[in-house]
């Protein structure tokens, strides 16, 4: 089988892939291919019909499909090649991309591969909730696809486990479609989604949010008939005697997203156990030469606007990589104190400004996030309040770095 | 009287404290931008929201097409607007920005299509 040569193959036509493609084209790169497994471009935005997208990027509030359309139009205008209904099944270390399509197996050999596969949802299996295995248990994104794309209502009496943003948005969506959403239960002592969604998706519709509660049993033979819910202690263990029964025909899970990196592994890309995404440098280059990653496949973002921005930063670096055949070595590592879940990138060169993205492990008030090198604070960000639901981004001017020694990110309370 | 609000205008979600007396605002604090204060003022007199939903599509590649209101509508009329939207259907192809209902219920807001959906090939 002969390989078709390409400058850049982009795997996934969601917000990250689209933004990367447009930006590469703007930088004069030709011969780009976007491979998308669905029928149309747009990724998860196709089903995110609520508004609130684009405030940072376009200064106006758009629905998901409208936000995607702005990039799709640009992709079309620039005649960027797109192949849909085609699933990539492997990427090799020498950048051979193999995909399954209706026309059989297709292969390409690329100078650079961009991984923009997004993320997937955690499921009931990952939580190990005891009980029966009836129909009526859905992840929030699956319920969203049924309702917003397939015109299929998932149920009438709903309980939601997990306070992720998609779960809260589906609480509102199902209420608008006539379902009774009884409650949202969150195992942590704080919500995992954004405050504005608690306000406009739950409070507006009088849907209670119970913190430090979890579903401890699922009932029902063929269809879900109810769930048992318990309060949990500080170690997140159910408190005996606190169990209550709720009748419902639907349980929606909004319990976290995991970067989708099965393909990255076939290319030998090293993953970060904290983000579950690739370890990258300031150019979004992974541990495999010529393979780059950005967006939710790299780390789960709070806002699509930041996904687009990150993918554009990636594309700028890929354009340099293609034109100059290499990128500066990045050997300065970044370590963090215990309050911080992770940082992206994990390595920098010290020769280029970079955006350091991070998330806190728990909500904190009146903190200072200090970036240290050689025992000195080189940059500091003070925050009145910070929550894990929000990604923190700090732009760091490379001139602040005085050596090639590692950076340390510390939180001072 | 002191009351806390979470601003829903942008993802910052500012926590704004309003000090009021007989519905009059004495002071506002916590907003990072002036839109936050405007949001709280609006919340006190006439809370408004945006909504997004879908309408049935005839002969489309998808059975539904997404729609939204172009301006916020009174919070207590969300379900009436939903009823109006449920009454209609559209014929494919449809285009993003196309008006599905003009000035819904006389509220000064149009319902517009937010997605391009082609006609189904038969």
Outline the structure in words.
The complex is a heterodimer of chains A (413) and B (122). Chain A is of the alpha/beta class. Chain A folds into 3 domains: 1-121 and 256-327, 3-Layer(bba) Sandwich (FAD/NAD(P)-binding domain), CATH 3.50.50.60; 123-255, 3-Layer(bba) Sandwich (FAD/NAD(P)-binding domain), CATH 3.50.50; 329-413, Immunoglobulin-like (Sandwich), CATH 2.60.40. Chain A is built from 9 helices and 27 strands. In chain A, strands 1, 2, 5, 6, 7, 8 and 19 form a 7-stranded mixed beta sheet that branches. A 5-stranded parallel beta sheet of chain A has the order 10-17-11-12-13. Chain A has a 5-stranded mixed beta sheet with strand order 22-20-27-24-25, with no helix packed on it. The radius of gyration of chain A is 22 Å and the shape is globular. The relative contact order of chain A is 0.13. By secondary structure, chain B is α+β, with helices and mostly antiparallel strands. Chain B has 2 domains: 2-45; 52-113, CPE0013-like fold, CATH 3.10.530. Helix content of chain B is 18%, strand content 36%. Chain B has helices at residues 34-45, 78-87, and strands spanning 2-6, 15-21, 24-29, 48-49, 52-58, 64-69, 73-74, 89-91, 99-101, 111-113. Chain B has a 5-stranded mixed beta sheet with strand order 8-5-6-10-9. The interface between A and B is medium-sized, with 33 and 31 residues.
């Amino acid at each position: 089988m002969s390989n078709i040569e390409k400058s850049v193959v982009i795997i996934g036509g969601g917000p990250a892939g689209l933004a990367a493609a447009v930006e590469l084209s703007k930088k004069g790169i030709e011969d780009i291919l976007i491979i998308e497994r669905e029928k149309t471009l747009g990724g998860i935005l196709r089903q995110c019909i609520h508004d609130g997208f684009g405030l940072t990027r376009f200064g106006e509030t758009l629905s998901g499909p409208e936000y995607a359309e702005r990039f799709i139009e640009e992709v079309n205008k620039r005649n960027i090649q797109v192949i849909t209904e085609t699933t990539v099944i492997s990427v090799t270390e020498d950048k051979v991309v193999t995909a399954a399509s209706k026309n059989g197996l297709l292969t390409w050999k690329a100078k650079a591969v961009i991984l923009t596969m997004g993320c997937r949802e955690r499921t009931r299996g990952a939580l190990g909730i005891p009980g029966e295995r009836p129909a009526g248990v859905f992840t929030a994104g699956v319920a969203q696809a049924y309702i917003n794309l397939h015109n299929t209502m998932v149920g009438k009496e709903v309980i939601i486990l997990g306070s992720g943003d998609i779960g809260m948005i589906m609480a509102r969506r199902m209420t608008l479609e006539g379902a009774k959403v009884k409650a949202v239960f969150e195992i942590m002592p704080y919500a995992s989604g954004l405050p504005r969604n608690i306000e406009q998706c739950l409070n507006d519709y009088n849907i209670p949010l119970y913190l430090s509660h979890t579903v401890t049993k699922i009932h029902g033979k063929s269809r879900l008939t109810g769930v048992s819910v318990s309060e949990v202690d500080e170690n997140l263990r159910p408190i005996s005697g606190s169990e209550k029964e709720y009748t419902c025909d639907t349980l929606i899970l909004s319990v976290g997203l995991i970067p989708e990196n099965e393909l990255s592994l076939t290319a030998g890309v090293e993953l970060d156990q904290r983000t579950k995404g690739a370890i990258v440098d300031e150019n979004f280059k992974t541990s495999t030469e010529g393979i780059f990653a950005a967006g939710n496949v790299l780390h789960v973002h709070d806002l699509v606007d930041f996904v687009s921005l990150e993918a554009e930063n990636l594309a700028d670096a890929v354009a340099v990589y293609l034109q100059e055949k290499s990128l500066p070595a990045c050997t300065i590592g970044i370590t963090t104190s215990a309050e911080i879940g992770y940082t992206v990138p994990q390595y920098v060169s010290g020769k280029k400004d970079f955006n350091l993205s991070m998330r806190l492990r728990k909500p904190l008030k009146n903190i200072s996030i200090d970036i240290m090198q050689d025992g000195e604070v080189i940059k500091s960000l003070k925050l009145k309040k910070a929550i894990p639901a929000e990604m923190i981004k700090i732009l760091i001017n490379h001139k602040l770095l005085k050596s090639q020694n590692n950076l340390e990110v510390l939180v001072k309370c | 009287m002191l009351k806390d609000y979470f601003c829903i205008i942008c993802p910052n979600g500012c926590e704004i404290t309003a000090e009021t007396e007989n519905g009059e605002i004495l002071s506002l604090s916590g907003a990072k931008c002036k839109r936050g204060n405007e949001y709280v003022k609006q919340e006190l007199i006439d809370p408004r929201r945006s909504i997004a939903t879908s309408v049935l599509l005839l002969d489309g590649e998808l059975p539904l097409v997404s729609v939204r209101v172009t301006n916020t509508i009174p919070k207590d009329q969300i379900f009436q607007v939903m009823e109006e939207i449920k009454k209609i259907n559209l014929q494919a192809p449809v285009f993003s920005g196309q008006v599905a209902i003009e000035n819904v219920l006389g509220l000064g807001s149009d319902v517009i299509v937010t997605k391009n959906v082609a006609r189904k090939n038969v």
